[in-house]
Each structure stands twice: as structure tokens, then as C-alpha cells.
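Worked Example 4.2. Consider the chain below.
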Amino acid sequence: MSIETLVKRIQNIMRQDAGVDGDAQRISQLVWMLFLKVYDAKEEFWEFDEDDFKSIMPEECRWRNWAIDDKDGEALTGDDLLDFVNSKLFPTLKELEIDAFTEKRKAIVKYVFEDANNYMKNGTLLRQVINVLNEVDFTENEERHAFNDIYENILKDLQSAGSSGEFYTPRPVTEFMVEVLKPKVGERIADFACGTGGFLTSTLDYLDAQISTPQDIETVQTNLFGIEKKPLPYLLAITNMILHDVDAPNILHDNSLAKNVRDYKEEDKFDVIIMNPPYGGTEEESIKVNFPVSMQSSETADLFVALIMFRLRRNGRVGVILPEGFLFSTEGAKKAIKERLLSECNLHTIVRLPEGVFSPYTDIKTNLLFFDKTQPTKEVWYYEHQLPNGYKKYTKTKPIKRDEFKSELEWWNNRKENDYAWKVSIEEIKDNHYNLNAKNPIKKVEEENLTLDEIFNELEGNFEKCSNILSVLRGEMND
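Applying the procedure from the previous section yields the following C-alpha cells:
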């Protein structure tokens, strides 16, 4: 039986439980169990390699001692299992004692369970889920690596899970951004809103070809850093990293914006920053005051751009996904942030993505901004990502694919203007009040020659876009 079929069996069992409501809760329910099972497999390796290894968990809370069914009639099930999970397992793991001397690989157990919940109310169904999960042997490399692909599909399911969709960036996008940023072993790499860990795992995959010694592995794992504010994606990210053989993920459960940017020192800065900050949200005054007055935006994405500038090392480089609203605004904090960005950094490339890349979570158009801290911006290159033939936009059933970035990659190191690529000088940008929403000059000429019927059709197609833009602008009301 394939692992993909196994996951579907688990989800079908959960759908019968009255306590689990919707995809997001089903995924959350599955992942805390998955974490404990994967962690137990890791502890088996540590026990084999280290004679003095001792688990941070009490024996009765370790997966091997309560979740395994030996078919002897002794396995916990029904109300007994439910009582153990709710009254013993969760309270114990939430209250584990840790301090500054606790190993990170052990402390993550407490961090993961601080905000985790058991949603299932039927102990018999819970036993069925556990038994199916036990069909995977995570001590076997082949099965664990096969599960990585299935786990990716689990994360992708979040795109349909209401607001939880914000946690997932399509893997073709993360892989493309990592490939053009070209991180190296020894560099410090960060994602300050890491969600489920997509950029971090794509970075690990990219760096794999550079690793030749155990020291390289340790260096990469030490230098890869993430922060995630919300409990569900934090749990998903930690589990994701462990599945990628990172024993002690360097991921904090925290709000990246909660510290005053003036307090960051050189040791707090990074060589590579790659991220998809949440957008459309608003921040309170207590968060905004952590930034210079001119940059105190209510829009979350704006503050992350400001944060990046304060935490980027000299000669460091960045890839960040931002909504259309960041580009075209010419007032308030957005303008001040862009002004500083272009004067302190070299914003060399903006890849313009079409609608639907993040469908069905949102249809808002997004842009991939690439810059480095080498010199002030002199010109910005734009590349308009092309939809496949026959597509009007990307959708859930027609998602963006990795090979569709081939034209960008071929153009990247040999830049010439063409039907999809053009550049704008810093003088033009300044004259346009720092509006970065530069139109493709070839398309602009075509639009000027539209017939009346074509103009009406274009206007009709823009009604939906307008509502999306308005939702972005609402975040600026308090600027």
C-alpha cells in the first residue's frame, strides 16, 4: 500500500469524528501524532549512537509505550485512550521543564505542544488513526523519505483550508527563488515568517549537492533559521524539518516584528533572507513602534520589508514575495520603505506573477522581489511570468509548475529586453513617486490600440481585481 493511500485512510477516519471540523483541524490533528511518531524514531537513532541518551519525555508518554498495538488486547483505545491523551499526554508535554541548558532537540517537544490540541472526541477512531500511522516505519530511510513527498501534499491541502492557506507557498516558487539566490554552505539563511518551512526545506535540498562532510551538515543546520508566529504552521514546520533529517530545527515560535529593529546587532543579521510574509493583515501600535516613525505601516508585509533591511548583512541578498499593493502605493509608510530600500539596497529584479498562483487561498497578484545590500539601485529589471498556453490564470486544478520558470532562468544571467522583460531606471521610479508598478511597454502599446469591444471586455475582467486591490488598501487606512 502506498503512503499516499495511507494518508487518505487517516483523513477518512477523521472525517467520522465529530470533534474535527475542517481541513485545518484534520491536518493539525494528524501532525501532532506524526510529530511524536517521527520523534520516537529519531530517539531510537540517538539511543543507538549515544550510550547516555535520555529522553525528555516520561516513559509512559513516549510513542512506543502508549501508541503501539501489539494485537494482544492491551492497547489503549476508546475512552481509556481519550482520557490518557487529554489528561496525561498533553498536560505532561505542555509542562515539560526546560531551561537554558536543555538541548534544542529535546526542548522542541515542549515548544511544539504548547499550542497543540487533540480535537478528536472518539477514542476508537483515534486508535484507528494511530494504527494506520504505525504502518509507516520512520526508522527506515526509504519510507521516511517517501513520506516527505506525501507530507508536501498534506501541506498543499492547507491552501484550501480557509485562512490557513497563507501558510503554504507553492513549491515551484520556493525552488525557483532559492535557485536564483544560490545560498552556500557557511552562509546564514533566514525566513522570518517561515510558515510550514517550505523555503527552509527547499534551501536544504539546494544545499545538499554542496555537502561533503559531517561538518558541512552541522554548519547548514546551525545556520538555517526560521521564525513562525502561529502554532499550526510552527508544528508543521518543525515536523517538516525533522522529516528532512534536521534533528534540532532552528525555528522559533515567536513574532518577528515584536522586537525593536534598532536593537539588532551584526550577529543578528543574515547573508540570505528568503520569505513570503503574510499580507492583508494589520498590526497594532505596540508592533508599529518597533520601527522608525516614517516606516510605521499598519500593513504586515510592509513591516517585514523594513525588518529585512535591518537584518540583512552587507552584501547579503534577498528574495521576497509581495502583493501588488506594495508596488503601486506612493504615499505614507509604503513610499518611505521603498525610498529606503532603493537607496540602501540594489533592487535588481521584480518577477511579476499572474493571478491564481496562491489559488484558492487568494487570487491577488503577487511579485517576487530580489535585491542585495551591495549598492543603491540604479535600475530595476522586470520579468513578466508567462501563463502556459490556454490558461487565463492559475487555479487549484491548474497550479504553477517548476518547469514554467525555465524562461526566467535562461534569461537571468543574460539579460536582454524582450516581450516579457524590460527595465526601468531609478530616475523614472523617482519621477513616478516610487511607484514600482511599471507596465510592460510592449503590452502598453498593444492596449492603446484596443477596439471599443476589447476595452469593455478588459474592464469587466478588472472588476474582480479591483475588489482584491481594495482589500490590500484597507490595511493602509491607519497609516
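The beta strands are 189-191, 224-228, 251-253, 270-275, 312-323, 346-352, 366-372, 379-384, 421-425. Residues 228 and 253 are 5 Å apart (CA to CA). Compare this with Example 4.1 before moving on.
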